[in-house]
Amino acid sequence: MSNSVNGVGGSNRATTSVNGGGGPAVDKGVDYANYFCTYAFLYHQKEMLSDRVRMDAYFNAVFENKHHFHGKTVLDVGTGSGILAIWSAQAGARKVYAVEATKMAQHARELVKANKLQDIVEVIEGSMEDVTLPEKVDVIISEWMGYFLLRESMFDSVICARDRWLKPDGVMYPSHARMWLAPISSKLANQKMSDFDGTIDDWYNFVDETKTYYGVDMSIFTKPFTDEQRKYYLQTSLWNNLHPNQVIGEAGIIKEIDCLTATIADILDVRASISTSIFAEDTRFCGYAGWFDVHFRGSMQNPAQQEIELTTAPSEDFGTHWGQQVFLLHPPLSVGQDDELIIHVSMNRSQENHRLMEIDFGCEIRYSSGKLLPPFRNKFYIE
Amino acid sequence: MSNSVNGVGGSNRATTSVNGGGGPAVDKGVDYANYFCTYAFLYHQKEMLSDRVRMDAYFNAVFENKHHFHGKTVLDVGTGSGILAIWSAQAGARKVYAVEATKMAQHARELVKANKLQDIVEVIEGSMEDVTLPEKVDVIISEWMGYFLLRESMFDSVICARDRWLKPDGVMYPSHARMWLAPISSKLANQKMSDFDGTIDDWYNFVDETKTYYGVDMSIFTKPFTDEQRKYYLQTSLWNNLHPNQVIGEAGIIKEIDCLTATIADILDVRASISTSIFAEDTRFCGYAGWFDVHFRGSMQNPAQQEIELTTAPSEDFGTHWGQQVFLLHPPLSVGQDDELIIHVSMNRSQENHRLMEIDFGCEIRYSSGKLLPPFRNKFYIE
After folding, report:
1. Which of A255, A313, B77, B90 fits a 20 to 30 Å CA distance from B382?
2. Domain A178-185+238-382 belongs to what architecture?
């Protein structure tokens, strides 16, 4: 034996059931082991706190809209190190409730005290779904976005917080979110295909050797092993900070979320079709890239004085720790200027782990010559 | 946000309690998420099946001791791909029960069928602690060894199987196990110290920048961040296949286990003192290495015809996937021929995850000159 003693996937053994947002029942302990525990490390907090695009957006959103905070009550969902709660207090909040499920809550409490805000910021260790506040709040602030926005399913907790604790005229920070999709070129497609081929070649050697030396025929595993490796190398999305010139066609929006009104049902399924024109000459369509942006606009009754945007789009200078999620085609396809792609996308939560996603792409290509490429489909996993 | 949605540590939220071998109650779902799921991947099975030292030892143990298997009933604890169960059947077993907790059981069943042994080998999907067999068995075979033998705490399941299902005159495969410890030299000590220094330098920059740009003083986290990083870089044991010439003093045995009689209490604490002489000239004592061997000797009443040994000691040509566990000292100490080390070792299970270990070393050095170095202690984590 010998393994990592660290999870590499979810478990479907539900024991203590909690609402997993419409999916199968979720074991809280398993969810903690698989998900939350990462956030209990300061190293991981530092990574997020070092993302200047992320930090600048939230910082400006708060300090350029002090009217939303001055004398108000604020709830920070998943406060982590406590940074957003502290900024809210520095911007003049009367009271800030900072909820955190992991032991990081203890560090957040120390940070609040070191910054002399312990009379304003109250750190509460517990999961948002279980916490009771003494009052409703004027503002909910949260940095809940995962890869391609919805991975981690943390927005569920924000919705729960909003429905229970936000005043009717309260505002959400951020107030809006959008998911984007675009066709891309990437050298990773060749590399991953070559990695996959290598692991399969190696498998055949292994089957031969096991038969020769140990008298057992393992060839029955060839298909499931190939499926497992195909999923790993070819069907799992990749983290990448793309250069903008790798985007070969117009990006399209596949989901818009109003954080004030969205329900869990709204985000369980993401289904959209977009049409995009290739604007690069003679290039390779290697796959899709997905990213998101969020906006801080306040609400209709209570708008922002200064609207702020946080985007994770491909950028030469302003990459984020979210990067983009890349879904590669094998093999890539030759395309050229004015070829049109019609892309159908459907994203759902994984059955085994409600914080992970499965995504289907359907694509038709209408070449500028008039020729049509029959539709093709690809399935990917956001792990 | 954004994280791995994969565990990087255990959880202490026990919901469904099972016997965790004398430690705190264990949540089965959490244990599955943290531990078992790795074994559900064929890629991981292939890694173990490609370890020639491991494979040769078990293969020879079975086929050079067919008298233990011919016409007998066998239980394979944690069969994985099913290899040991299949060999047992090929060596003439009348019936083999092959127990596996993960979905790998389904693959094992296919492999058994593809090798036409389905009338002899019965694959049972379930955890050993929960399984009921229709009869007691003559042989228990299992490959239960983790890094430094006891990591993963899988021997608990073997003990459980033995106490419930082994006939009074039954035999254990393997029958004996030993843990070894030796002083080593290693260039990794410098590298890890430099990695640690780098991460701490970077931290101070981060604290300055966060204060300058975002008005929050993070210096309160300097101590806990340093502790966290020290644990990660300097106090976590490393996997390494050492060259034999990196062993600078005699190796000593710190634990001997008779698999037929050992109890969980016997393996919960490993405490020993060994004395070792440095046999290298003018070298650096960079830390300790731990490894194990197991033996296939049958039992007193029913001995092996051919005793087989599986060792994971440092070897130029016969490295294993277990390698050795390396515990580095910072800084290393200069030592020379005939200097004597008295090493006290104490290993326990981690409170947070009963499959991980904590280990304390105490060391005194009696230089060949007669000079004594006062004792020093170091704590490490086997993660």
Report:
1. B77
2. Distorted Sandwich (2.70)
